[in-house]
Amino acid sequence: MATEPIDMEVAGMCVNEFGGAIGMPQLCGEWFGNQIFWLVVALVAIYFILSRIALPRIGSVLAERQGTITNDIAAAEDLKVKATEAEAAYDKALIDARAEAHRIVAAAKADIQADLNKAIAQADAEIAEKAAESEKAISEIRASAMQNVEEVAKDTAQAIVAALGGSADAKTVSAAVEARMKG
Amino acid sequence: MAAEAHGEEAGGLVFHPMDQFIVKPFFGDGAVSWYTITNATVWMALAVLAVFALLVLGTSKRSVIPTRLQSVAELAYGFIYKMVEDICGKEGVKYFPYIMTLFMFIVFANFLGLLPMAFTPTSHIAVTAIMAFAVFFAVTILGFVKNGASFLGLFWVSSAPLALRPILALIEVISYFVRPVSHSIRLAGNMMAGHAVIKVFAGFAAIAAIAPLSVVAITAMYGLEILVSFIQAYVFTILTCVYLKDALHPHH
């Protein structure tokens, strides 16, 4: 059926009297020239629109965008490096400050220790002095006590001698007592 | 569906599925000569205008952060550019404007043809055959200019056993010359069939009981046709790239 109209390929034979298609309008040779001509015109028009205006423009926009993105990424990397540097500087400052603080603390400690040592030494000296005084007092007391004991002993000895009926002069008794106490 | 179908209108149903493909003068009546402004001319011109609107007006601001229309234009550019680069390699990029021209024309002719009452230039074998033969001759000439006689190596499958090679060469030659035919008929046939089927469903709508089903069927076909419109433009373009690749790198 479809090949029939080709056999009758005469001008006006592709359409019947009602304006309907006879067979496939695609195969109607009478319209080929018109379609081919306008197709070529359309394709050439599109080709010039694309190659002269559209494609270079879109290409440059895409390239520009790529450039912008690349620049932005580079800038971001720059800033990141700067941030890292700033962080390092901050860390360094922190460490320095900490070391300084340690130094100050150590110095203060040393000062205090020195004061303390001085005060202890002074206190020790005072204590030693007091102790010496006390020692002296004690020895005096002890000496006086010994003397008292001697006297008591002499008196007692004399009294004992007298009581036993002997008569002894005081000098002999005291000499004997002294000799006995030393021995 | 020849002459008598129009006259008798069998069973009350009227089927004129092919009438939509008739080429007629856009202004007035009369014969269609090669320069007449016909409905085909008008719809091709609309396709050109649509391409202009999308790719030129849509990108007129050249904004780094694109508007919607500009992103569509950039998407189309990137889509075809990547296709050419992937298939043909770096040497193929200089043919990108030609391939982009074919793609934009076909895709807009297909989509504009989906408008009610529209004419679809790409449903005509005359149109698609011219494009397919243009690709065929361009690729063949390019192949010989670029590679000289070694372009014939395309037909000599050196990876096959020697005894098979002459037979394969014959098959390759036949398939090479069939290329423009399949290339053009695939596009025109797809466009024509879909539009004709929609018209047939529309014809059934004359029966009240079938009308709702008919509307559903038309809607479904229309959805399918939207897919087909894009896919056929894509297929035509990608085959063009493949043929171009054969011309640039004829060895298997």
From TrEMBL, chain A:
The chain crosses the membrane at residues 36-55. Pfam families: ATP-synt_B (PF00430). It is found in: Cell membrane; Endomembrane system. One of its GO terms (molecular function) is proton-transporting ATP synthase activity, rotational mechanism. PANTHER family: ATP SYNTHASE SUBUNIT B (PTHR33445:SF1), ATP SYNTHASE SUBUNIT B', CHLOROPLASTIC (PTHR33445). Belongs to the ATPase B chain family. Its main location: membrane. Residues 76-140 form a coiled coil. It comes from the Bacteria. NCBIfam families: PRK13454.1. It is a single-pass membrane protein. One of its GO terms (cellular component) is endomembrane system. F-type ATPases have 2 components, F(1) - the catalytic core - and F(0) - the membrane proton channel. F(1) has five subunits: alpha(3), beta(3), gamma(1), delta(1), epsilon(1). F(0) has three main subunits: a(1), b(2) and c(10-14). The alpha and beta chains form an alternating ring which encloses part of the gamma chain. F(1) is attached to F(0) by a central stalk formed by the gamma and epsilon chains, while a peripheral stalk is formed by the delta and b chains. The gene is atpF. This is ATP synthase subunit b.
UniProtKB/TrEMBL annotation, chain B:
One of its GO terms (cellular component) is proton-transporting ATP synthase complex. Pfam families: ATP-synt_A. The keyword Cell membrane applies. Its main location: membrane. Keywords: ATP synthesis, Cell membrane, CF(0), Hydrogen ion transport, Ion transport, Membrane, Transmembrane, Transmembrane helix, Transport. It is found in: Cell membrane; Membrane. Belongs to the ATPase A chain family. This is ATP synthase subunit a.
